[in-house]
Amino acid sequence: MTDLVTFGETMLRLTPPAGDRLETTDTYDVQPGGAESNVACGASLLGVDSVWLSKLPKSPLGQRVVRELRGHGVRTGVAWADPDDHRLGTYYLEHGGTPRGTNVIYDRADSAVTTVTPDELPVAAIKGAERFYTSGITPALSPTTLATTRTLLEAAREADTRTAFDLNYRSKLWDPDTAAETYRDLFPLIDTLVAPVRDARNVLDREGTPIEIAHSLATDHGFDTVVLTRGDSGATALHADEIYEQPAFETETFDAIGTGDAFVAGFLARRIRGDDVDTALEYAAAAASLKRTVGGDVAVIRPEEVEAVVAESGDEISR
Amino acid sequence: MTDLVTFGETMLRLTPPAGDRLETTDTYDVQPGGAESNVACGASLLGVDSVWLSKLPKSPLGQRVVRELRGHGVRTGVAWADPDDHRLGTYYLEHGGTPRGTNVIYDRADSAVTTVTPDELPVAAIKGAERFYTSGITPALSPTTLATTRTLLEAAREADTRTAFDLNYRSKLWDPDTAAETYRDLFPLIDTLVAPVRDARNVLDREGTPIEIAHSLATDHGFDTVVLTRGDSGATALHADEIYEQPAFETETFDAIGTGDAFVAGFLARRIRGDDVDTALEYAAAAASLKRTVGGDVAVIRPEEVEAVVAESGDEISR
Amino acid sequence: MTDLVTFGETMLRLTPPAGDRLETTDTYDVQPGGAESNVACGASLLGVDSVWLSKLPKSPLGQRVVRELRGHGVRTGVAWADPDDHRLGTYYLEHGGTPRGTNVIYDRADSAVTTVTPDELPVAAIKGAERFYTSGITPALSPTTLATTRTLLEAAREADTRTAFDLNYRSKLWDPDTAAETYRDLFPLIDTLVAPVRDARNVLDREGTPIEIAHSLATDHGFDTVVLTRGDSGATALHADEIYEQPAFETETFDAIGTGDAFVAGFLARRIRGDDVDTALEYAAAAASLKRTVGGDVAVIRPEEVEAVVAESGDEISR
Amino acid sequence: MTDLVTFGETMLRLTPPAGDRLETTDTYDVQPGGAESNVACGASLLGVDSVWLSKLPKSPLGQRVVRELRGHGVRTGVAWADPDDHRLGTYYLEHGGTPRGTNVIYDRADSAVTTVTPDELPVAAIKGAERFYTSGITPALSPTTLATTRTLLEAAREADTRTAFDLNYRSKLWDPDTAAETYRDLFPLIDTLVAPVRDARNVLDREGTPIEIAHSLATDHGFDTVVLTRGDSGATALHADEIYEQPAFETETFDAIGTGDAFVAGFLARRIRGDDVDTALEYAAAAASLKRTVGGDVAVIRPEEVEAVVAESGDEISR
Amino acid sequence: MTDLVTFGETMLRLTPPAGDRLETTDTYDVQPGGAESNVACGASLLGVDSVWLSKLPKSPLGQRVVRELRGHGVRTGVAWADPDDHRLGTYYLEHGGTPRGTNVIYDRADSAVTTVTPDELPVAAIKGAERFYTSGITPALSPTTLATTRTLLEAAREADTRTAFDLNYRSKLWDPDTAAETYRDLFPLIDTLVAPVRDARNVLDREGTPIEIAHSLATDHGFDTVVLTRGDSGATALHADEIYEQPAFETETFDAIGTGDAFVAGFLARRIRGDDVDTALEYAAAAASLKRTVGGDVAVIRPEEVEAVVAESGDEISR
Amino acid sequence: MTDLVTFGETMLRLTPPAGDRLETTDTYDVQPGGAESNVACGASLLGVDSVWLSKLPKSPLGQRVVRELRGHGVRTGVAWADPDDHRLGTYYLEHGGTPRGTNVIYDRADSAVTTVTPDELPVAAIKGAERFYTSGITPALSPTTLATTRTLLEAAREADTRTAFDLNYRSKLWDPDTAAETYRDLFPLIDTLVAPVRDARNVLDREGTPIEIAHSLATDHGFDTVVLTRGDSGATALHADEIYEQPAFETETFDAIGTGDAFVAGFLARRIRGDDVDTALEYAAAAASLKRTVGGDVAVIRPEEVEAVVAESGDEISR
Ligand SMILES: [Ca+2]
Ligand SMILES: [Ca+2]
Ligand SMILES: [Ca+2]
Ligand SMILES: [Ca+2]
Ligand SMILES: [Ca+2]
Ligand SMILES: [Ca+2]
Ligand SMILES: [Ca+2]
Ligand SMILES: [Ca+2]
Ligand SMILES: [Ca+2]
Ligand SMILES: [Ca+2]
Ligand SMILES: [Ca+2]
Ligand SMILES: [Ca+2]
Ligand code: NI
Ligand code: NI
Ligand code: NI
Ligand code: NI
Ligand code: NI
Ligand code: NI
Ligand code: NI
Ligand code: NI
Ligand code: NI
Ligand code: NI
Ligand code: NI
Ligand code: NI
Ligand code: NI
Ligand code: NI
Ligand code: NI
Ligand code: NI
Ligand code: NI
Ligand code: NI
Known about the structure:
The structure is a homohexamer.
Chain A: E1 4-7, E2 11-15, E3 27-33, H1 35-45, E4 50-57, H2 60-71, E5 75-81, E6 90-94, E7 103-107, H3 124-127, E8 131-135, H4 138-141, H5 143-158, E9 162-166, H6 176-186, E10 192-196, H7 197-202, H8 210-221, E11 225-229, E12 235-239, E13 242-246, H9 259-272, H10 277-291, H11 303-310
Parallel strand pairs in A: 1-4, 1-8, 2-6, 4-5, 8-9, 9-10, 10-11
Antiparallel strand pairs in A: 2-3, 6-7, 11-12, 12-13
Helix pairs in contact in A: 1-9, 9-10, 10-11
Enzyme class (chains A, B, C, D, E, F): transferase
Domain Carbohydrate kinase PfkB (chains A, B, C, D, E, F): 1-297
EC number (chains A, B, C, D, E, F): 2.7.1.178
């Protein structure tokens, strides 16, 4: 029985070794990555029965993606495309310490998923599921993915499958105004909204404290739950008219990419289990802090590890 | 003073470690590769002053390409494109022993070079050069590259720069009939044609022995020189109504990709120096055999090494 | 719907880099390996819906095994053991060219699987399956695995699931006489016997040509099918009183481990599809030749590749 | 002439690359590690003539251990066991930043050393030595190693070789009560006790400040010297009724494993040289801080480096 | 048109992996490094048209150096030496965290450059250039390089090419008194002096605050500009009787080697562009902070990155 | 008790990965290598108690050499030199398949060993030994090493320690005439001469068949034993007026460097054990064939492996 269905693009992530630059490296570490598969994988490792829907070229590259997700325990509902006309998106990721920062170069235009239609996907999987999740990246990819996103959200609504949506605004995909318009069209179909406060301010034009923003979003769009993330400063949630504040856990960062997806995976894992928002929020923050110690997009983290962080005893050598 | 100008696409080549498969690997070796830059680099290392013309995204990925070519001593005449709209092509290369063979997956559609026009390029470089080289890949990339190829060949013709063209038929880019039609349109602008016998047969519809094919091509299209390559079986050249036969040198293959480009680089290096076709042919075959011992697309080979092979004394430890 | 169920031990395989020795290396390549999971994985990649049954410690090491198998598309029916008392077997593999040969050191004593009982396993999976496969390694591991092997074979027999058994004699696990006695006890439950001719001679005390040995085994034990493998010299099969001879395909060996399992995977894949023994035998030999070009225990090979070898056109660069 | 003899188990340590997890990695760094060989190696590199006694399988894996120790300058007194019945213990080590911490999985049951008896070992080496060292891990491995530990300690006592013992409590080997009982039986044979304060509290049931605990242990068991370590907070020693306090030196940790062994190696190196406890304690703390900058179990550190840290001038580039 | 000419030695730098020690490693990362080529490369990447003058053995090792510099966009004016009598210098670099520090072992005696004379070099390049740069390492290498350094500085002076000189005192090459004497002989030929305050104190025997030292040096030797660097504490400049203070930017250090050269490259890049000393100083400090995040001697840093640090917005993920 | 003492230079060997070239690589595999330590290590691994005499800089680089040799079980008698004035020789090794061949660049001038005098070495070790070995490389390094070689050979002669000498002519160290003169001066001190037939012809000016050359050398110089090696064609020995012919064993070459040293190690191992020349010759040839399958200069080969090759059963997987 499926707990969670996610839908979105997964790319090959190409990363040079630490200290190397994209313009000089001769080696990449390669690994699939994408917000919605990151959430599916992270949730699966935390005990959630997860399905990921997408479209891939029927080639070793598409198989590379499926293998990784299956390894994390995710079932895949893939529309296989002719590899002669459909490519796999890639993204180049260069880690750098302060003050250099991390640099990402996307090469995702015209990837197979930009052509995915609902009839190519096992949409029925959504019907039996507890939750459906996608993010603001997916509708930005193409008019077709926007239409498909809407159709899948409607399918969830009809099936009483609760929906979650992470704003995930990407300035390289669209401008804030276009994005905001699309978001607003989709919001009526969303139960739980997750968003960085920064995006709520810059893209959704909200002002005030996180608490004020959460209230204003919930009021305007009727969300059941709003979760605003603030990076190192933690997260603020609004649910059933109650506000929850959660600080971030201390962490030594090895790879920051995927932190937000780990947060969502942890949050949904606990909500699907029936836990309250405050419990889920703490679990989400702990999962996010653990993710940063692991290389790659995916939070390869087990429930007992998250629980140990929550119980504040995760930093000893056990032997 | 420039000896050789080449024009064409260079991609990032992504290769898993030996024994790994594209569908399972977590690492790529990365290196730029492309027929025309391979020829420019190989010729440069053999002492030819070479320039490569192309178009690249102005990004660390485009810089990665330029760095590699400069390292080989090639000067680059690059039209820099906005990296937000123009991508760098990539290709995935999986080596495999018999009976698996080598597998190549191209991801080159819509790369920056497909939009290159003559006015973006330092075409004047062709004017002072001895030779201009491009291959049958370039006109296959887009109508724009076809037009630009024709314009550059015409510029060479006007400048009395001799032209060389490697058929390099790629079935993943176009079908034989379309290719043949384009080839025939460009042939009047070509002095030296290099082609695999196989492509002469399958694409140009030639029949008979290599000698017969060379004669028929020269007769039909007025080439100054025709060189037909036969892989392990060597090469056949026709020039000034004389036939030259060159067997292949024995070689232990580490990386077969780029063998044909090494052959052309060796051939042009000697012709530019003023050597006869038979001398150039032997040098070309030796360069090709050496290339196969080196990883990567480029023949990182020095003149004294080619000469040692020609002199049949290249296989001892020198110490 | 399940096509194939296999049952057996999977270990972590630890391999130094090429040219290094176990007594000097500082690095291992690590990958799960075991005859029955190799067959399940190989068959899965060739299109067979496969399930693997076994017992593992509930630890990151046990998860490492499950991840790999899932990546190959295999479903896993695992009895999870307390990692404080149950270990994962390992094996150290050193490749060496002639005359050094390959060296294997097993460290498999007391692994979790030696305690596996039928009630811990989802035996029902066998009931709906086309075929059940295990090898002569499994009953050698412990009296418990011997008993469980027998029970699973009986379950298959009762369910009309056809059974296949690879002799896989391991001199480091038991002596020939003990092995032969156990084999003979299990043979009445076996439909298809696969065995190296060498083991048939040395362990089962058979004499004569492969054809004579196949006949004598079939006569004595009532096998539906007998397949005798002869390494580089190919294989001989007996089925329905007919003899089939299959030469080995030429291959450049990167990693010889798992060749026999690839052969079995290919054979079963075609038999499950309903093909005749001669077709399956040729497919098996092609899969085995391809396996040797790939690193690791598992034949990461796709159906179109096997078909290309059978059609004798697998050794060109496709581009 | 031998300064130091140690006795204990050495395993192969298997470590994934930084940022990788045991459940996903395809590579291990491999290196021998064990408390008593770590002390022997660390002391040897600090100028102490050291011998290590143990039992190993006579195989490339056992040779791997001996090679590493010899490389560090240690002489080995090894009882070689039949590799068909005796295995080498291994341990899997996963480093992780805060809050993940370091995870260790031991696979040491039934290793060759668990069967070692005094008559297999060159016990005479203890007779001429200055010091004999073993740790609380060794008697926990098996009744046989407990008996052998006792015999070797008695041999040291008879030979006027001073003995040192690090409590090294391992909860995965035994429970606190059993451990404490064994410790108390061995304590009369010990001159210098080293113990983490934490273990003194939890296993030996001591209460109070480190100073109070040191006094109570010395009083109860008649130790010549007691050293209590407190991680980042330094160490406290009691000797000849005097208390010495030593803070920890600042350090950037690359690999924390083996810090305690480096401390003991540094302490014994100076005590063997005839230095006082306070000098030895400072040297020990400096060696421990340096060890954390080096990968692997062993403190690959030279005397001049320790002296530079003591002299507070170790952090400049020297060129 | 050339902006900057530098002259000095470049060696192969050999570095073990992080956490490994020179006495145990089996692998080196290899990359050319040398103060004057580091400055040429850094400046080139920041948009300066740079030429590097030196002498190298005509061998693959000499070519290795040229390739790297060309990759960074530097043109090379190399005197090629017979590799049978002339070697390439190397240096071994071991990174270590606190308190271990970084260790450098030079193996540069008798390298080809120690024999370089002005007539072997394209000295004319200096004539058309904006600036000429060398450092205090070059005259320390041999009497020949001292004489050549002087000749090149004189050539710059005559050509109205402004000169810059980094003190770069190396205690492994000469003692402070000999160095100071040479420096003082060369100072009349220098326009811009860069020096660590520490060296100004210890080698040039200056006392007082950085400001006092800058004034005293300018007064005594008539420098147009004096820049004194103070590591983490920033830099102080004196120009046209005005003092400029620049703090260091915060940085996470991956590789500290080459920080000073990055500073000089940044400073000269802006001065060549015509910017004021204060602008150049800030740019220099930002380039230095970025360099520390990149592996290798060379500051592989682009202008927009330096500008982003100056604008204090360089530490976000851009996507 | 010492069986074998060797004397000579050991360098750091720097090797790029397979398929890479010295002019492009960014990585070296590093490992000590030198003819006389190769022989000492190879013999030690074959059961011979071996000592190696030499001089090294007292630095991590010198320690790197000692560690490796100790790991192979060799005791080292090292004269430690001040690392500020004495360097460690290095050599760059590039493997290449046919027709490229292997390339070696020596950087050994002025290494510490060129200054070694007998009084710095534990010459007494030779007195108790069975055999003393050095090669024609050592006297070529400097007048000092020539004098020391002579002194050590004389010490052996006086002590009735039998001497062996491998011609090992290196054209990069001296010319044939100078070499031959030195050889002839040393020959009266040599019992066993090993030489490639090629060197016997080109350097010692011998003509005729190997048998004729062996006889003429023995007659002229009074050798007890002469062994002439012929690469793939095997070896010819003359001893006590009898001729022995030994073909080479078939081998798949991974690393050809050190083959001759492995041959000598095998030969001496058996002669020291008291075996006849024919037995030793076969063992030597088997050891040489095994060496070629192992990376590095040293024959990491155990006696049972050599014996298996001699018994022609070494090429199976044992499991
Ligand atoms: Ca490389
Ligand atoms: Ca990541
Ligand atoms: Ca990996
Ligand atoms: Ca290639
Ligand atoms: Ca290592
Ligand atoms: Ca495998
Ligand atoms: Ca791998
Ligand atoms: Ca360790
Ligand atoms: Ca190694
Ligand atoms: Ca560097
Ligand atoms: Ca690199
Ligand atoms: Ca070697
Ligand atoms: Ni490269
Ligand atoms: Ni992964
Ligand atoms: Ni990363
Ligand atoms: Ni991976
Ligand atoms: Ni993987
Ligand atoms: Ni390759
Ligand atoms: Ni490459
Ligand atoms: Ni090592
Ligand atoms: Ni090591
Ligand atoms: Ni393998
Ligand atoms: Ni392998
Ligand atoms: Ni993998
Ligand atoms: Ni570590
Ligand atoms: Ni090593
Ligand atoms: Ni570094
Ligand atoms: Ni590189
Ligand atoms: Ni590089
Ligand atoms: Ni090698």
